Task: structure prediction
Amino acid sequence: MGLQPTDLFRGAGRGPPGDVPVASNMDPGLRRDDKARETQAAALLPQMPLGEHVVEDYATLGLTIKRHPLAFLRAELKREGLVAAADLATLPVGRRLAIAGLVLIRQRPGSANGVVFVTLEDETGIANLIVWPAILERFRRAALGATLLYCRGRLQREESVIHIVAEDLRDMTARLGTLRDRTGDAPLPSPGKPPFALRERIPGYDPRDLVVTSRDFR
Result:
């Protein structure tokens, strides 16, 4: 049997042209030097804030298990008088209140005579809004376009069914632009400064800004 071309190269102590040396044939000292350089380079990188981790998770996965975006804003929302979704189960029925959350679903059933149902989510749970046609027309841009939606309205609760009948809607999406700078343990803004003193960016300005895709009626 004749020698194959690769046998000739192996006999000379090397592989055929184009072969890349495998790591096992490299000098162990060189491998240690490469590892040390990688470790040193990683140590020089600034630590990514928790808020930026959350934004990146939403950009790549569409969700996060690290921390809900509203948890970063809760201290400021509380100072502004907004309640959390978990509070709705115990607050007095008929009370007027304000809440904010990420929009998950917008529904307009054909049998609902133009009423829109909006599902919001914060770090404590879900809040369901009832938006009557007159309110929808008045606050249409916020109702149909906001990612982070503010609602002021009247609480309704019958057994385990809880709704807020919307009276005022506002688009608070711009506040999500502050998440990248937040560590999750920042102190409350000082009384002399307005809430959300961190720089706000318009969503879409940075292609990696937090984007939450809602399921909307067509």
